Amino acid sequence: MYDQTKVPPFVARDTLCAWQEKNHPWLELSDVHRETTENIRVTVIPFYMGMREAQNSHVYWWRYCIRLENLDSEVVQLRERHWRIFSLSGTLETVRGRGVVGREPVLSKEQPAFQYSSHVSLQASSGHMWGTFRFERPDGSHFDVRIPPFSLESNKDEKTPPSGLHW
């Protein structure tokens, strides 16, 4: 709402302040994970998105952002991904496939970085992910780049809404 005595002249209403307070844990950046293999730097930032009930069980969702950077002058192309996803429910899933998000990006001196985001769901409130990306050099040879291991943690310390407000 507008308040001419403030600089800037706008202040958040009580409902926005209450929403921000309740959702504060989800608005914070989580850990940043980085690893470099053969001059390819992989950066991963996971975000907890929340839990939904489905068919009498809980499903926990995370989004993760990946940035691939070629720190060398040699052109390389991402060809495959290989993920290992461990859930505290005791499951270990393997995901293999061509490229990422339907693409096989080329990392060159002109375009040294590629960034994408994806999501994962687990039947447990936490887990871990790790894996490799397979790249191809111009001569046709391949090499694997490690994806740094990262934790998938749900926010168990959820705050209750301020008194008088109901969600």
Which descriptors would you attach to this protein?
4-stranded antiparallel β-sheet, 8% helix, 167 residues, Immunoglobulin-like
Briefly, what CATH class?
Answer: Mainly Beta
- What structural class do you assign from the helix and strand content? mainly beta
Task: Assign the CATH superfamily.
Answer: ApaG domain
- Flag low-confidence runs: 157-167
Count of DSSP-assigned helices: 1
Our estimate of the beta-strand percent is over 45%
Rounded average pLDDT = 86
* 3D shape: flat
Overall structural domain count? 1
Query: Got a strand count?
Result: 9
Radius of gyration from the alpha-carbon trace, in angstroms: 21 Å
SSE sequence, one letter per element: HEEEEEEEEE
Characterize the biggest β-sheet: 5 strands, antiparallel
Give the termini distance in whole angstroms.
Answer: 22 Å
Assembly status: single chain
Architecture per CATH nomenclature, i.e. the level-2 architecture: Sandwich
The proportion of residues forming helix, as a percent range, comes to: under 10%
**What name does the CATH topology carry?**
Immunoglobulin-like
How does this structure look, described?
The chain has 167 residues and is mostly beta strands. It has a single domain, classed as Immunoglobulin-like (Sandwich). Helices cover 8% and strands 53% of the residues. Strands 4, 5, 6, 8 and 9 form a five-stranded antiparallel sheet that branches. The chain has a four-stranded antiparallel sheet with strand order 1-2-3-7, with no helix packed on it. β1 and β2 form a beta hairpin.
Topology record:
Blueprint: H1 14-27, E1 33-37, E2 40-54, E3 57-70, E4 76-87, E5 92-98, E6 106-107, E7 113-122, E8 126-136, E9 142-153
Antiparallel strand pairs: 1-2, 2-3, 3-7, 4-5, 4-6, 4-8, 8-9
